[in-house]
Amino acid sequence: MELDRIDRKILSALVEDGRASVEAVAERVGLSPTPVRRRIRTLEEQGVIRAYRAEIDPEKCGLETQLYVFIKLKSHDRDTIERFEDCVRRQPEFQQCALITGAHDYLLTIRIPSVKEYNRYIREILAEFPGVFGIETSVVLGCIKDSPTLPPER
Fold first, then answer.
1. How distant, in Å, are the alpha carbons of 35, 59, 127 from that of 142?
2. In terms of residue numbers, what domain contains 87?
3. CATH number at residue 13
4. Considering the chain, what is the average pLDDT of its residues?
5. Model pTM?
């Protein structure tokens, strides 16, 4: 789907405030509510807008430690991959799991209360995942920028 300037403005408005009314988005975009409502519905139907959700401050919820965990699997057969990925999907601590290129196979983003809790977690849970050969962890010291990606202007 090719996004035009108006679609990008609508997306920008919704990224800034996902609870904005159609009328508020229409005012910001410079159109009447009816075409904006239609465009939003089209963006939803085509999967450009995947969801509306609350953005939670993890630290205020007791999840003060963010970690990047690099995983290397013992083998890359279908069964090992499927079993590992199934375990990952069931872990609420994982914010994201990406299949990556390079020295590792996966990059996990984890939020957890403390490094002490991660030590327990890695020993009791993560190291027991099927097919795990290596685990390397980087602790996030601070976040410089955290914003959603918007389509570029063309």
1. 41, 12, 26
2. 59-139
3. 1.10.10.10
4. 93
5. 0.81
